[in-house]
């Protein structure tokens, strides 16, 4: 990344405005390159224009910068290296610890519900059996049958408790590994430490696995996590289950999604997304779609059982569902056309993903995008999304340092990012401008032209556009 940034700084281009007041003749001697706020000065302009110069070969490029803001406090170690601050990393890695905590809480709730359910059955049954034996109201065979039933339920509870205990141990082990991973960061003294590069590599692998899982590449994510030995630092099980339900919805099946809703019924009551109602509504739509009379009767019964119970919050949707009984699936009348559309399955899968991530406190977008946002904002300039540049890489240039923001992969991601705030200007000392208006370092431009090999002597090639110009067409740029 540091090499990429260095190349970007070296080969970044400036568009010279067409405003005539920025193009002034200059003295032939080299001026000191400093960036400062410039205002129009008549005396200065008269002095400049009174000297005989050749405006065809010399240009002054005036750069106006805003006042420099107050410098922020920086942490410096005894060796002079910038000390590592972990605040940003802690904010970014919150889901790393939050998810195991939520899973442990849900696991405990499952244990609590299982014990309470069996307690409600066993205690009254024991009390009833003891009274029956006391007053000879039960035969010995009935008593033995009741005891066998209770023992069977207790064995089932024991197996479930063992399974939940294993799950709890797994969650605790994950939490321990993740805490150790973050603790390593806090022990690193500076950015120059080799351990920080190692830790950053592990974090990058985590972000890549997270992005793969969210994109549906579960097998590739598992393979990468296994090769890097970071299975405990990524959420393979959670995203694999989510992807399985999403795929079933895209196939037009609601069974797995409804099963997931049943397992998380208590948590869904607090959610702003009424996922279960939408799934039941889709079942109703599929019954009505067939136009079979028996299916319509079944659809009415289904609506009474699952839809009408949500009348207080979903009355409008219920009324629309009732109106579907008199329409066919090829209708053009809205909103029934939309309800009958197969695009609703895509809507349901997206709704499930939103609900799933909300319940587990997962970010709505990949962590890799969040991590990239800071870097994209630091590099973004107005030129990256201007009408004069292409969002794709230039294929005509063989050796060129393409701006990451202008690349096809990152252009859309950076579109809503704020522009970088630069309080200072950094310009190469041997800047020249090509006839197409692009400014480069002369030495770097000549080096690139020689590396390309396809450029004749006495000519240079624009690394961005691929255009070839004579060296004599280059004009010196002076910065005031």
From TrEMBL:
InterPro entries: CRA_dom, CTLH/CRA, CTLH_C, Fyv10_fam, LisH, ZF_RING_GID. The keyword Cytoplasm applies. A zinc finger (RING-Gid-type) spans 403-465. Pfam families: CTLH. Residues 147-184 form a coiled coil. The keyword Zinc-finger applies. Signal peptide: none annotated. Residues 238-295 form the CTLH domain. SMART domains: CRA (SM00757), CTLH (SM00668). It is found in: Cytoplasm. Keywords: Coiled coil, Cytoplasm, Metal-binding, Zinc, Zinc-finger. Residues 403-465 form the RING-Gid-type domain. One of its GO terms (molecular function) is ubiquitin protein ligase activity. PROSITE patterns: CTLH (PS50897), LISH (PS50896), ZF_RING_GID (PS51867). GO terms for biological process: proteasome-mediated ubiquitin-dependent protein catabolic process. GO terms for cellular component: cytoplasm; GID complex; nucleus. Involved in the proteasome-dependent degradation of fructose-1,6-bisphosphatase. Belongs to the FYV10 family. This is Protein FYV10. The lineage of its organism: Eukaryota, Fungi, Dikarya, Ascomycota, Pezizomycotina.
